[in-house]
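User
Here is a favour to ask of a fellow structure person. I am asking you to supply a protein in sequence and C-alpha cell form. Please set it down just below, with no commentary around it:

Assistant
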Amino acid sequence: MNKLLILFIIPLLFSCQEDDEIQIETNVIGEWEIVARYADPGDGSGSFQPTTGKFLTFSNNNVLFCNQGFCFASLTQATTTGSFDDSNKTITTSDCDATYSFNGMFLEVSYLCIEPCIERYIRVN
C-alpha cells in the first residue's frame, strides 16, 4: 500500500511549479494603461482606487502620447503630447510637469495638485 501511495505522490510533487515571479519594470518605452489613482480626502488616509481608460505611450524618440489630458484627464484637452527624459524620470506636457518611477510591475506617475496626485499603470505591450 505504501509503494502505491508513493507512486502517486512523487509525480504530484514534481508537477508542482513555483508561482511566476512578479515582473519588475525598468524600461518606460511602450504602452501603459492606468489601473489605479491615488485618492486622499486630505487627511493622509488615502489609498489607490481602481480606474481605467487612460493610456500613455512612451516612444523611442522621447515623445509621450496620452489619450486624454495628461494631468487632469477630461478637465483638459482630449489628447496630450509631450516629452519625457528617462535620465531624470521627468515628463513635460502642456498640462503640467510630472515625474515617474517604477514600483514592481507598476509605472507610477506623480504630478502636483491639491492632494497627492499619483497614477499607477501597467504595461500593455
Notes: Strands lie at 30-39, 47-50, 55-58, 63-66, 80-85, 90-92, 97-103, 106-111, 117-123. The mean pLDDT is 82. Residues 67 and 93 are 13 Å apart (CA to CA).
